[in-house]
Amino acid sequence: MKKSLGGQKLRELLPQLDAVDMLVPLFVVVGLCVVFLLSPEESTRVVDTIRGFLGNQLSSFYILIGVGFLVVSLYIAFSKYGDIRLGGPEEKPAYSSFQWGAMIFTGTMAADILYYSFCEWALYAQESRILQMGSVQDWASTYPLFHWGPVPWSFYMVLSACFGFMIHVRKRTKQKFSEGCRALLGRRVDGPIGHLIDLIAIFALLAGTATTFSLATPLLSAVLGDLFGLPSSVLLTVGLLVLVALVYTADVIVGYHAIMKMSVICAWLFFALLGYFFFGGGQAQYILETGITAMGNLIQNFVGMVTWADPLRSSGDGATGFVQSWTVFYWAYWMAWCVATPFFVGVISKGRTIRGTIIGGYIAGLSSTFLSFIVFGNYGLGLEMRGRLDVSGAIAAGADIPTVILSIFRTLPLPFVALALLFITMVLFYATTFDSLTMVVAAYSYRRLADVEEPHHVVRIFWAFIFIIFPIGLINAQSSLSSLQSVSIVAAFPIGIVIVLLVASFLKDAGNYLKGEAPPEG
After folding, report:
1. What's the pLDDT score for residue 361?
2. What is the mean pLDDT of the chain?
3. Residue 75 burial (CB count, 10 A)
4. CA–CA separation, 156 and 337 (whole Å)
5. I need a surface site. Which of 324, 340, 462, 509 has the fewest CB within 10 A?
6. DSSP structure class, residue 85
7. How far is CA 482 from the centre of its chain?
8. Contact 479, 214 (CB under 8 A)
9. Can you say how many angstroms the Cα of residue 348 is from the centroid of all Cα atoms in its chain?
10. CA atoms within 13 A of residue 444's CA, in its CB half-sphere
11. b or e along 140-164 (b: 16 or more beta carbons within 10 Å of the residue's beta carbon)?
12. C-alpha span between 435 and 248 (Å, rounded)
């Protein structure tokens, strides 16, 4: 059990904090928020221009990192490194397999997964790539499994092993990205290079969370408006954003035990919503058979899909192709989230081997993710294929995505109940996800913090506040889906370089550990 530092007085706390890693992100995020509020169109244009260059001209960078991390995750798991236990040789896991798996899924990107499960197949349905592959029926349901499958989860699994080793085996008290690079960079991580690495990591995380909040919070607003007859507005969306922040702030003050309890509750709510669609929607056979087909397509074509760079740009305009618009975005999106989520998974994996952490993490993450896309996604696809609802046509015509998702729910029996369940599940998913992130980035703010200590509640509240500032600016600017994707793609480019350095440092340090050598000084 970790010891909370919440009882410390502020005068005792301040000398322990890293002012650079806290104040620089605060000022930059506030500045960006002001810029997006005052000049939304110009800000969006600049970000989209940078995204166009990175995503289009340097798309191979993101593709190669995705392939590389998938291969490295399997190498680490099944090599000598996989036998290393996170903690002492006799250390026992702090959480049961179900609790641990629930925390991995709900503490990562569960709210996003739920949001995209309802609409992603429809976003692809009008793409020429889908028609090149075969049909909407077969491939619009396959690509969501690919984009939320083994490659993005490999980012989390590899870095969870790196951070778990750093915290529980090497007992490092600087819980920062730069510290994970110490074996490779030595004492350079204590100077400007270390601060640069940490600031890149924090900004990437803020970009990733801003994209998450800005994408899915409007769905919460639409659901609440539908349930209680409230007019949809930016004010309502921002109000819900603040509500979610209050929920996860209250929860994160309690600590990891509260996060575990919330995760288990979220998991059961998620299963209840799955059951509502699968058994209550009247399309169980179609959902199951389409899911089996999609899994078969993914397995049979995986190597080609993961290495296809779309050199002729399948959109036909010669500028941006399917890979550049979608695959690069998803790899970048998960890379941006790599700053905190793997830290969290590494912390809660104490007592497990690195092999158990990676393979178990894959099982927990992929099974939950695939269930979501297969059940929710294929329900909507079935409505379209059978002519009951033109989901993809409505989105292609410019319809608001949350409104389209509501139309899917209205085809269910007692849609009011289903929407209420969706609202509660998403709020708690958000709260659990940001519980974990806030705990991690709060620990990140300390100069030194042992793995048996939890950050002071004031530090946690500080980051809970920071997490909602930038999304408010993006929501008020009414940024498009493409613009929100741009934020993550831009932020992920520098963090991609950092995570490669971190993995190289881990392999070096873990190799030295197995030889019986002491950790690098620092």
Report:
1. 94
2. 83
3. 13
4. 9
5. 462
6. B
7. 18
8. yes
9. 17
10. 35
11. bbbbbbbbbbbbbbbbbbbbbbbbb
12. 5
